[in-house]
Every structure is written in C-alpha cells, then in structure tokens.
C-alpha cells in the first residue's frame, strides 16, 4: 500500500473508530507486537480526535448532521458508486505541503496540517473561539470543520515527518461537481483568492525568473470578473465577511483566502434556483449530486440560498458559492515571527518590497482582504 493510501486509511480509522491497534488485547505478546508495528510505521499513524465533543455538538445541534450519516461518508464500499476506499487522494496542493482527500460521496474533504505552528495555533488559540462562533453564526463563511485529528504516541513516521501528524475534516464547497460532470453540465469554475498586492518572492524577485511556472501557479488566483448580486445579497455577503474576518483578526490570523465557485445557471437549473432557494415541487430539489443546490447537511442549515449551497445572480446567468479557508497562520507563532524578521531585513538591506501576506499585521491583512472582496462584487439595481 502506498503512502497516500496508508495515510487515508489512518484517517478513516480515526473517524470510524475501527483501528484495531487501539483495541485492547488479552494477549501480552500481541500488544507488544502491535506497539512495535505502530512505532516503526512510516505512514500508518494512530490518529485520535481532538475535542470530539465540541465538533460533535456542532455537527448534531447546529448543522443537523447525524453521526451515522457522517461516518457513512468515510466507510469503504458503502457509498453505492463502486469505490473501495473511504477516501480518495486528490493530491498535494500549495506551499504548506498539505495533502487533500475527498470522501467517495464528495461531501467532505480531509486536509493535512503538517506545520506545527498551524495545527498548534488552531488547537491552542482558535479552536474554542471557532466552535463558539460557528454555533452562533449559522451564515458564517468560515469553512465548516467537522473534526480535527492528531497523532497519538511516537512513531518513526512522525519523528521523520514523512506523514502528517494532524488533519482537519471539512465540508466540500465543491460538493455536487461530480454529478454535474456526469450530467454533461458546464465545468464549474473556482478561484482561491487572496490580496495580490503583497510581496510574493516567487513572483516579485527578478520578475519571477528564478522560480518555475508550476511554483508561481500555486500562488493566489485572480478573479478578472464580477460577482453580480442584488443589494440585499451584497449586504448579507459583506456582513458575513466583516464578522468572520473580525474573529480572525482578533486571534492574529493572516493569509486566509476566499474560495469562490461559479456555476453556469442555464436551462433547467436556472429556472429552479430563485432568490428564495429551490422552487417548491422542483424535481431536483433533493440532495447532493442530484441537484446544483445541496439541501442536506452540513451545507444546510440554513436553508438555501446560502453561500455554501449557492447564491443565484439576479441576471440568471450564474450561481456562486464561497467560503473562507486556510485561517491557520498566526502572527504570534514562532515560524511566522521568524519569517517577519527575514522580510523586514530584506526590505531594509536589499530591496524595499513591503510585507508578504504572511508577515503583515492581522488588521492590515483584513482590510486588504475585505477590499479585494468588495472589488469583485457588482450590485445590480432592481
């Protein structure tokens, strides 16, 4: 079994509580052999849920997500589509070294959080405020995190860092894309948006000549268009952004992004999606892959339309989804402080480029982020 498959299986075992290593054995020799197997494993880490009661409370009481339905998404071969694994690898993405997996039903993504400064920030600083905030802000654009997993005990793989020690399980804002492909619909577009006016060494040193195009392609996307919204839709959007980013700024988070999805809303789908959600009696107002707008947890509640189910543009051309992602980089952690020092010295001694998105202040990043979001919205007068 390869690295990706082994890591995926560790995650599935943690979610479904099926890890035989954690089961007590009456045979001392079997227990000793199991401990040796865990210690010398490169990729098969024993993962445990961190603060499981808090995330279970969010799932059950605020996102109407039943435990059995949640766990079923991770069970191999039980999703009706011939998949034999509980998670499917979708590759390494970004500079953080994170790996991504999708459940076979595409409802959830698993993202590894390998950097100590990121997973320690979420666990020690942001987790409690996040849980409290998400319980009281149902229309928040912060991505819904359903579980947080961390490695337990020592192992060769953990010491050598060849396998990520922490993972988050989150909603998949692209849920339904697979069904749209099967129906022959236009491919969904998506962008990972951050303010691009910051100093990006990969792009700005020697005009990007020192790095490959593949590396530069991993930088933040640019959206060269507009999100067409009514005044009410725009007001709701900006209110959520203001509130969400205020929480992040208060806890020193920077470098988060707006993940934007745009779907064509023509023909059958455009007639069914209105400013109040799905029309009553719509044949596709069901669940998940059978509809452009999911109406099942954790996407709903609240009822559609929302930015996680799909907000229709008033011109009838598109449906948009959006979520705030990657809010794990905090200015007060050791690695960010070291990076801030390096960029400060660079600006003083070599060339004044200004701060990077990971070394600026939380308030300044929030201001630029909100300005970026306002700049991509166009309000259609009614």
UniProtKB/TrEMBL annotation:
GO cellular component terms, A-Z: plasma membrane
Comp. bias intervals (Polar residues): 270-293
Domain of life: Eukaryota
Residue ranges, compositional bias (Pro residues): 295-305
One Pfam family from the record: PIP5K
Region Disordered, annotated ranges: 269-312
GO biological process, alphabetically ordered: phosphatidylinositol phosphate biosynthetic process
Keyword set includes Transmembrane helix: yes
Keywords linked to the UniProt accession: ATP-binding, Kinase, Membrane, Nucleotide-binding, Transferase, Transmembrane, Transmembrane helix
Annotated ranges, domain PIPK: 1-377
One MF term in the entry's GO annotations: 1-phosphatidylinositol-4-phosphate 5-kinase activity
SUPFAM superfamilies xref list: SAICAR synthase-like
Transmembrane segments: 32-50
PANTHER family tied to this protein: PHOSPHATIDYLINOSITOL-4-PHOSPHATE 5-KINASE, PIPK DOMAIN-CONTAINING PROTEIN
Entry protein name: PIPK domain-containing protein
Native organism: Diplogelasinospora grovesii
Upper taxonomic lineage: Eukaryota, Fungi, Dikarya, Ascomycota, Pezizomycotina
């Amino acid at each position: 079994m390869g690295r990706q498959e082994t890591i995926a299986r560790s995650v599935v075992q943690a979610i479904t509580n099926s890890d035989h290593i954690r089961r007590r054995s009456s045979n001392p020799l079997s227990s000793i052999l199991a401990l040796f197997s865990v210690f010398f494993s490169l990729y098969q880490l024993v993962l445990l849920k961190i603060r499981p009661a808090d995330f279970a409370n969010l799932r059950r009481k605020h996102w109407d997500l039943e435990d059995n339905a949640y766990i079923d998404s991770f069970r191999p071969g039980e999703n009706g589509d011939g998949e034999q694994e509980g998670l499917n690898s979708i590759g390494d993405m970004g500079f953080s070294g994170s790996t991504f997996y999708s459940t076979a039903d595409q409802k959830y993504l698993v993202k590894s959080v390998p950097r100590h400064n990121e997973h320690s920030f979420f666990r020690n600083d942001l987790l409690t405020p996040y849980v409290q905030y998400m319980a009281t802000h149902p229309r928040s654009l912060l991505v819904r995190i359903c579980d947080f997993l961390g490695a337990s005990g020592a192992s060769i793989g953990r010491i050598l860092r060849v396998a990520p020690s922490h993972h988050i399980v989150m909603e998949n804002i692209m849920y339904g894309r697979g069904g749209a492909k099967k129906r022959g619909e236009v491919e969904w577009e998506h962008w990972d948006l951050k303010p691009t006016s910051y100093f990006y060494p990969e792009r700005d040193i020697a005009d990007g000549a020192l790095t490959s195009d593949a590396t530069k392609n991993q930088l933040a996307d640019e959206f060269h268009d507009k999100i067409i919204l009514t005044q009410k839709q725009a007001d709701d959007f900006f209110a959520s952004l203001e509130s969400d980013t205020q929480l992040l700024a208060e806890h020193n988070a920077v470098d988060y992004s707006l993940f934007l999805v745009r779907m064509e809303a023509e023909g059958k789908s455009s007639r069914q999606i209105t400013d109040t959600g799905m029309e009553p009696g719509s044949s596709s107002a069901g669940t998940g892959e059978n509809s452009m707008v999911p109406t099942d947890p954790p996407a709903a509640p609240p009822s559609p339309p929302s930015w996680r189910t799909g907000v229709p543009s008033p011109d009838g051309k598109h449906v948009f989804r959006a979520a705030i992602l990657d809010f794990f980089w905090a200015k007060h952690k050791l690695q960010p402080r070291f990076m801030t020092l390096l960029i400060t010295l660079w600006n003083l001694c070599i060339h004044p480029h200004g701060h990077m998105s990971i070394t600026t202040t939380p308030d300044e990043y929030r201001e630029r982020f909100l300005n970026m979001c306002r700049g991509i919205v166009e309000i259609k007068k009614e």
